[in-house]
């Protein structure tokens, strides 16, 4: 059981398609969280997502401890808060994140969502950080296609590594426009809250029943089937958050689960796509 990799964004760097989220990890038992994260790394879930926002920097410290001694195996991503995303603010925020994470570089650095600072400034800072070797790539989060068009016009093709967006069985908005846009422009789609941030479909009702049936037929857990369904297109990566070894092992084992076209069609019908909307859905 080991997570396989896919080409990530324009660099085509191989990155584990199942990663690990860390939002609210400051509330978890620290030792248990560390053991779970490290177990995930051992099993190849090496894409770890964090942010300066999480626990106001405390989560980056936990992640820093988890990656100690295995930094080069990990694809480490953090995010700058929009209020800090001026040119100087981004450079300073990155230094704080590097210190908290006890590393000299990030593999990806994202703008958490759009705020009042002009995108030009944030991207200029990202480019400076690339030049300095402090980040290997940069990207965005919570960007709809209008934002993506604007970003692309500023930085040009081949610069935006990923767009991290809300995507789970009951929230498939990005399938209308965002995923096709990212496929066209070689931008990885990183699905956050792939289990609905803990509000996972009940096996007793509606789509959840179909999900449970398919999972049982495959000898898989419904969570594994959900990850497989979401990442059925190669541009998509998932970053579920799990605070126990059992959950991490369950998620990683999604790598061995196969869904056929009929099962994918049943799931797509059981969890309808919903109407097209402007922008992206957020939590
Ligand atoms: P999520 O991954 O959708 O769901 C987490 C919940 O699922 C937790 O309650 C967890 O329980 C449970 N869980 C995980 N694996 C399970 C399994 N195999 N079986 C049963 N339950 C399982 O929630 P999320 O934390 O909102 O999203 C994931 C990550 O995306 C975040 O941690 C963060 O890194 C990122 N994110 C980014 C943004 C953004 O704006 N860019 C926004 C939200 C999230 P346990 O904790 O008990 O394991």
- Content of β-strand: 5-15%
**CATH secondary-structure class:** Alpha Beta
- The tally of beta strands, per DSSP, is 9
The biggest beta sheet is recorded as:
7 strands, parallel
Proportion of residues in helical segments: 25-40%
- Ligands: NADP nicotinamide-adenine-dinucleotide phosphate
How confident is the prediction overall: mean pLDDT? 97
CATH architecture label name: Alpha-Beta Barrel
**CATH level-4 homologous superfamily:** NADP-dependent oxidoreductase domain
- The helix-strand sequence is EEHEHEHEHEHEHEHHEHH
Number of helices: 10
Distance separating the two termini:
31 Å
Describe this structure in words.
The strands form two sheets. The protein has a seven-stranded parallel sheet with strand order 3-4-5-6-7-8-9, covered by helices on one side. Strands 1-2 form a two-stranded antiparallel ribbon. The protein has 283 residues and is an alpha/beta fold. The model has no long low-confidence stretch (mean pLDDT 97). Helix 2 (58-67) links the parallel strand 3 (47-49) and strand 4 (75-80). The radius of gyration is 18 Å and the shape is globular. The chain has ten helices and nine strands. The chain binds NADP nicotinamide-adenine-dinucleotide phosphate. The site of NADP nicotinamide-adenine-dinucleotide phosphate has 26 residues, from helix 9.
């Amino acid at each position: 059981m080991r997570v396989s990799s896919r080409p990530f964004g324009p660099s085509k760097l191989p990155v584990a398609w199942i990663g690990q989220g860390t939002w609210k990890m400051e509330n978890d038992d620290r030792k248990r969280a560390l053991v779970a994260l490290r177990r995930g790394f051992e099993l190849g879930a090496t894409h770890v997502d964090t942010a300066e926002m999480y626990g106001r920097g405390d989560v980056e410290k936990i992640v820093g401890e988890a990656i100690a001694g295995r930094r080069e195996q990990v694809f480490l991503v953090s995010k700058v808060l929009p209020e800090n995303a001026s040119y100087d603010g981004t450079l300073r925020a990155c230094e704080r994140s590097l210190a908290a994470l006890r590393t000299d570089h990030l593999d990806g650095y994202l703008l958490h969502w759009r705020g009042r600072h002009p995108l030009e400034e944030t991207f200029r800072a990202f480019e400076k950080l690339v030049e300095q070797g402090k980040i290997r790539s940069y990207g965005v989060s919570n960007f709809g296609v209008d934002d993506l068009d604007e970003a692309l016009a500023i930085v040009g093709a081949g610069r935006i590594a990923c767009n991290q967006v809300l995507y789970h069985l009951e929230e498939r908005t990005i399938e209308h426009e965002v995923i096709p846009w990212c496929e066209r422009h070689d931008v990885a789609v990183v699905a956050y809250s792939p289990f609905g941030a803990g509000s996972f479909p009940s096996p007793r009702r509606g789509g959840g029943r179909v999900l449970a049936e398919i999972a049982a037929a495959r000898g898989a857990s419904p969570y594994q089937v959900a990850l497989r369904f979401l990442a059925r297109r190669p541009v998509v990566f998932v970053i579920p958050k799990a605070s126990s070894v059992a959950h991490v092992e369950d998620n990683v084992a999604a790598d061995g689960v196969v869904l056929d076209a009929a099962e994918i069609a049943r799931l797509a019908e059981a969890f309808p796509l919903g109407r097209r909307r402007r922008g992206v859905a957020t939590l």
